[in-house]
Target: BTB domain-containing protein
Amino acid sequence: MLRIARDYNMAIAGTPSFPVIPEVPPYKDPSAGDIIIRTSDGVDFHVSRRRLAVLNARLDGSLPSTFPSDPKSKPSISVSETSAVWEKFLRVCLVDEELSYALDDISSLVETGLKYGIPAIATRMRYALVGPTALEKEPFRVFLMASAYGLRDVALVAARRTLRLEAIDHEAFGALKDVSGLDYLELLKYRSQCGEAARAVVSPPQQRGNAFKLPGWIAEHPEHWSLLAVTCTARCASDTRTVSVTEVEGQPTTTYVCVRKSWIAYLDALGKTLERRPWGPGASDPELLEPVIVSAVNCQTCAKSMFRSAMGFAKVVEARVEQAVGEVRMLTDVRTL
Model:
């Protein structure tokens, strides 16, 4: 409440309620600080030894043993990185400002932080790694970076996001020098286990003879199998298979219903797809659902409700797949700093 009141009063007074970032960062002001950090391309940044000490930066070994007698002169520290790296690095360390960073920037920032004894940079970059741009476009690389930098929570989120892609992006591995073979194997094993769990959702139980059975979670719940059952006696009934289902949930009483062969083909095709790409929303793929919907086009009774039933069932499958995949755990520990 105090913060709301403060922001309201500042707004009334015409003062912005967010921190004002100076146009010229303090490390670019020659009158600021008492040390110069000189980059490999000859750019000087002016910083305070006290601020570096607060950051626990390991620059002490680079400091000269004696300092100039002129109070206006500053000792300089030569670093091997370019000004482009240090510009971003100092902004992260010394300026209270959240910016968006490319993955290449994040990698160089974290490596610079580790080199100079500031591992907290990796923690700060956690939010950039889980940003929509990085996570959506390059989840494999985000997983590898998070693993290398000990950010297990980010690695788990990125690993789950890779399931949306059918194949592993091996270019992401070549872009990082700290890639661990254990990280790669862990990701392979996780994706394989997720594929098995996802396919099991739509795979029928072991069959005897020519009898076909629906997966248990469908056959044992009327609200699920009723979406697949053919109730009309018209042309649709000739293109079906008879399956046993539970008539009342929770009771052993069974009955037999007719299910379109197109639904059985859908479950089979979806299982193969999920094994390669264990992503729940794949259940609503129009290419998979099209044969089911088309199978009812010529039936005046079923055509009216088939699209709604198909999409409704696909959403149920989607939720079940996501639940099954969510129960898969990555067993090995990600390396820590």
